[in-house]
Amino acid sequence: MSAATLLTNIGELTTNVAVDADPCGTVHDAAVLMEGDRIVWVGSADEAHRRVAGSVEVVDAGGRAVIPGFVDSHTHLVFGGDRADEFEARMAGVPYAAGGIRRTVAATRAASDDELRRRLAGLVAELHAQGTTTFEVKTGYGLTVADEARLARLAAEVTPEVTFLGAHVVPAEYEDRREDYVDLVCAEMLLACAAHSRWVDVFCERGAFTAAESRRILAAGIAHGLQPRVHGNQLGHGEGVQVAVALGAASVDHCTFLDDDDVAALAASGTVATLLPGVEFSTRQPYPDARRLIEAGVTVALASDCNPGSSFTSSMPLMIALAVREMGMTTAEAVWSATAGGARALRRDDVGVLAPGSRADLVLLDAPTRTHLAYRPGVPLIRTVWRRGRAAA
Ligand code: NIG
Ligand code: FE
């Protein structure tokens, strides 16, 4: 029999298996049995003793809270360089400009595979330590065929959720012939990256790619077997949400500037609105209105957008705290969006939920309830993380 662990005496268990009005499927005085990389049983701590047979390791949660591992559905973790100077300037009043992306492109192109791999490994360790057990990684700081392909390859070493983002910005060398760059993205670059990628993404925004260019690039990706997702409505109102919904994208990310038609289109679609409050924190933009989306019936995910320009944090607990403090979410909604919501944005049903058959990815908090994630911002509340049934040392 593969290794089994019974985690018992859980004061508050967030299962995300919806019960009546509680989408978090909260169970008090609970226990979870893991076997191999899966959860095999969830129930009350009182019943748990009947499950202890043979070589089951028993872990006492001491009345603390347990939640599913965070699902961070939007990151840009493969890059070189540092843009702390831009952050300092923004805090002194300089507005965020997506043009800074080109600085990271230059630093990334200059870095060796090993340098990028080391940096990536450090960031992945940072995510894991903060309770993230599933994460997506985008390319987008290479912007040549060879560089995008190596970023996709390096990303695929750490996650199956790789997104091809050759359409991040038009690189400097194509400044005066952007159609040629779109052609390149849709042909050679896509061909070089598709084998390592599951998703195709476009930064559909003024200063990046137009709606028409975005549609073309996403359609090319779909034709190569990739599924679409979109960066949209980040810096101002634009067509990103409408492009995403029309193509049946899994998610449209940022969603900071939305009109009523965007909200209605999202509500009537299967596209998740992924909100990235680390960006608003770090760029001093207004936060997106999560309450408006939730009231309209839109599925909302929270993600870190970890990248060196607009949001250099990998902390999902910080996203929860910001969503509750600044975006009108309840703590239950924010925790759901950072776990089950992220899973929906990645079209995964094996993570973000604690139920028999789901992956044994869970987090024991150093707190009696999940509310403490927002109530005690900045405090390291991640006590133990199980990934695929194994506790991190
Ligand atoms: O998601 N919006 C586009 N891309 C990133 C920012 C990248 C950067 O500034 O380096 C984002 O915010
Ligand atoms: Fe992003």
UniProtKB/TrEMBL annotation:
Q: Which residues take part in binding N-formimidoyl-L-glutamate?
A: 141, 307, 309
Q: EC number(s) on record?
A: 3.5.2.7
Give the Gene3D superfamilies listed for this entry.
Metal-dependent hydrolases (3.20.20.140), Urease, subunit C, domain 1 (2.30.40.10)
Positions contributing to 4-imidazolone-5-propanoate binding: 83, 141, 168, 234, 310
| Cofactor binding notes | Binds 1 zinc or iron ion per subunit.
Presence of keyword GTP-binding: no
The record's InterPro entries line, in alphabetical order, gives: Amidohydro-rel, HutI, Metal-dep_hydrolase_composite, Metal_Hydrolase
Query: Which of this chain's residues are annotated to bind Zn(2+)?
Result: 74, 76, 231, 305
Main function: Catalyzes the hydrolytic cleavage of the carbon-nitrogen bond in imidazolone-5-propanoate to yield N-formimidoyl-L-glutamate. It is the third step in the universal histidine degradation pathway.
Q: Which NCBIfam families match?
A: hutI (TIGR01224)
Name of the molecule in the record = Imidazolonepropionase
Q: What is the lineage of its organism?
A: Bacteria, Bacillati, Actinomycetota, Actinomycetes, Micrococcales
